[in-house]
Amino acid sequence: MRVGVRRHMLSLPMAIGRRRVSAFADQARSVIGGLSALERRLHRFLVAELTRAGEPLTPDAVAEALDLSREDVVRMLDALGARKALIARNADGAVTWAYPVTVTPTAHHLRFRSGERLYAA
């Protein structure tokens, strides 16, 4: 296992790497496992659409695309945002980050086979 520290990649002993991966997987299962089916659908949509659009997604655009009310979308975005591990929004309330991608520039550049370019959250 390798871990990035600034601009360098360091190798970790396998025992430490396995523990870190296991702990991360447990944390991810607890966050995702606590979501309703509709919240999981919303999160999957956000990841896919941020990747495709490459720009923040407004609650109105999300509501229209998913055929939901704006109020339901805002309520679910608030719930996802409260988990501090799944999404982030800008000052206007538009989604800019849905784990694992973000439209906000970071040092972690992604390029997909389909040609989209984005940043890792």
Q: Can you characterise this structure?
A:
By secondary structure, the protein is α+β, with helices and mostly antiparallel strands. It folds into 2 domains: 1-33; 36-120, Beta-Lactamase (2-Layer Sandwich). It is 48% helix and 20% strand. The protein is built from 4 helices and 7 strands; from the N terminus they run ββααααβββββ. The strands form 2 sheets. The protein has a 5-stranded antiparallel beta sheet with strand order 3-4-5-7-6. Strands 1-2 form a two-stranded antiparallel ribbon. Strand 4 (95-98) and strand 5 (101-102) form a beta hairpin. Helix 3 packs across helix 4. The two termini are 20 Å apart. The model has no long low-confidence stretch (mean pLDDT 81).
Write the layout of secondary structure elements.
Layout: E1 2-5, E2 8-11, H1 14-33, H2 37-53, H3 59-66, H4 70-82, E3 87-89, E4 95-98, E5 101-102, E6 109-111, E7 117-120
Antiparallel strand pairs: 1-2, 3-4, 4-5, 5-7, 6-7
Quickly describe the structure.
The chain is an alpha+beta fold. The protein is built from four helices and seven strands, in the order E-E-H-H-H-H-E-E-E-E-E. Strand 1 (2-5) and strand 2 form a beta hairpin.
CATH class value of the largest domain: Alpha Beta
The general outline is globular
Class computed from helices, strands and strand pairing:
alpha+beta
Q: What percentage of residues falls in helices of 4 or more residues?
A: 40-55%
What's the main sheet like?
A: 5 strands, antiparallel
**Strands in their spatial order, largest beta sheet:** 3-4-5-7-6
The average pLDDT is: 81
Radius of gyration: 16 Å
Q: What do we call the CATH topology of the largest domain?
A: Beta-Lactamase
What is the string of helix and strand elements? EEHHHHEEEEE
Tell me what portion of residues adopts beta-strand conformation.
15-25%
Number of helices: 4
How many structural domains?
2
**In terms of per-residue confidence, which ranges show pLDDT below 50 for 5 or more consecutive residues?**
none
Distance between the termini: 20 Å
Could you tell me the number of beta strands?
7
